[in-house]
Design brief:
single chain
Length: 88
């Protein structure tokens, strides 16, 4: 995957996150879509880690940006999974 593809996928995932947060019903379709979304977020998470570990990018600012993105993505994934078990 190229860098622009990763950035496009990350943008699409962010938009779908905002749209999914507006929905409050937990139908089976919503849960399946949410699982697919979490899978894609984890895929992007792993791909960015692979790019960081490969040393392909030498810019320190770019690495810091990606590390911060990874931390926030992991936080969002944990919150999404935890929200399934917390009854409101």
């Amino acid at each position: 995957m190229k860098l622009w593809e990763l950035l496009l996928l990350r943008h699409i995932l962010k938009e779908s996150n905002e749209q999914q947060e507006e929905r409050s019903d937990f139908s089976m379709f919503y849960i399946i879509v949410n699982l697919i979304q979490i899978y894609l977020m984890l895929l992007v998470f792993v791909l960015v880690i692979m790019y960081l570990l490969s040393g392909q990018f030498s810019s320190t600012g770019f690495k810091i940006y990606n590390i911060v993105y990874l931390i926030f993505s992991l936080f969002i994934i944990i919150i999404k999974i935890a929200s399934w078990f917390i009854k409101s």
